[in-house]
Design a protein that fits this description.
Elements (H helix, E strand, L loop, with lengths): L8 E4 L4 H8 L7 E4 L5 E3 L4 E4 L4 E4 L6 E8 L2 E5 L3 E5 L6 H6 L2
Antiparallel strand pairs: 1-4, 2-3, 2-8, 4-5, 5-6, 6-7
């Protein structure tokens, strides 16, 4: 008799927009992460995301290695970016500040 199979849902990185914005307070979907394994730099929105239970796992769209893990518990959000060697986050500039600079 065959063992039962469990279907695993696969999403794009936009699935992580809500949970990550809770932690960082800025838009991370356009942030670029460099894969520690293959060196490819990809926007978070392009990560292949598996989940949601027991948490989300974001994988490199090039080599499929794990880039991040995100798990929510009743009182905390656990975030592991150990598969990302660097993360470049674009910060919006305030046009009022730019106008005041000489």
């Amino acid at each position: 008799m065959d063992a039962p199979t469990t279907a695993v849902a696969v999403y794009d990185g936009n699935t992580l927009a809500g949970p990550l914005s809770e932690v960082f307070g800025v838009e991370l979907m356009t942030a670029a992460g460099r894969c520690r394994s293959c060196g490819t730099t990809s926007q978070v929105a392009t990560f292949r995301v598996y989940g949601p239970a027991p948490g989300f796992v974001g994988r490199c769209p090039h080599c499929e290695d794990v880039l991040l893990r995100l798990v929510r518990t009743p009182d905390a959000l656990w975030l592991d970016f150990s598969g990302v060697s660097a993360l470049r986050i674009l910060i919006p500039t305030d046009s009022a500040d730019e106008e005041q600079q000489p």
